[in-house]
Amino acid sequence: MEKSINAIPHVVIREIFETVDLKTLFKCRRVCHSWNNEIESMKYKRTQKLNIERMLLGIGDNHISIEGTSKSCYYAHSFPKFIGMIRHFESPNILLLFVRNHQNGNMIDSIINGLNIEWCENVKELEIGDLGNISTDKINQVIWKFSNIYYLNISWKNQESVSCSMFLRSLQKLRFLRIYQNLENDNYSNGLFLDNESLDILITHQINNSRLLQHIELWNMKITFTNDEFMNFLTKLSTIPVHQDVLTTIPKCVNAQIDEIVYISFLSCQFENPILTNLQHFCSENVYSFRIAQTSFEILID
């Protein structure tokens, strides 16, 4: 077999390898030693690690798909195959993690255990959605794996009563946070909630690192923090010096601009404690929006 393959002209083999997709190239490496050695010696971009801006990991009950562009999609049906595939990719700046018809955490465990720390630390923006029946604890393990991100967007149908502090504790560099919770029958009792501890964690991260926080957008969540704690949070946030990254870089996933103002929005949220009287004018149709300027004279701006 290998003798007949070696009869193919060297130039022809190289031309074929250059035109096939990455999935086919992986298979070619297993055909014979000569083909594997030929692919290893090639300096074409295809044989190096792929560097893509945005990667989508689709998780099903028995597979993980890796999508880099509209023309490429690679499937792994086991943990070893996923490890073998992902090592050919550089860390993307933007990682989208979607769970499709996944009833257990086996493939989620592949993500948690299969990606090395350095690869995860280079990811800057993380979106997680369509989580099905995956537990908040399992999702929290994923977020801890990507603790270097400055953008987090979670969309899911959660039925566990859990504080946002669980997710926020590891995200010291967080700048943009968006959580959309799909509730059944407007049942706020089962789901994520923002409490005093969550505010404490957010403000502690800012004090330790100078102020990075730029945008918080929460949908359909229960808000349990006290008014005193919230006012204390706003006051501290308005006086912490702005981090240089806020003035120089903008995440790819959001329609944002370089701005010193912090935007906080509660959309269709349920407040356990009535909002402070002097903040009522920031409310319109159950949408509460606060813009916090970097000034010691005025905390809130219309």
TrEMBL record:
SMART domains: FBOX. Residues 2-47 form the F-box domain. InterPro entries: F-box-like_dom_sf (IPR036047), F-box_dom (IPR001810), LRR_dom_sf (IPR032675). Transmembrane segments: none annotated. Signal peptide: none annotated. Pfam families: F-box (PF00646). It comes from the Eukaryota. This is F-box domain-containing protein. The lineage of its organism: Eukaryota, Metazoa, Ecdysozoa, Nematoda, Chromadorea.
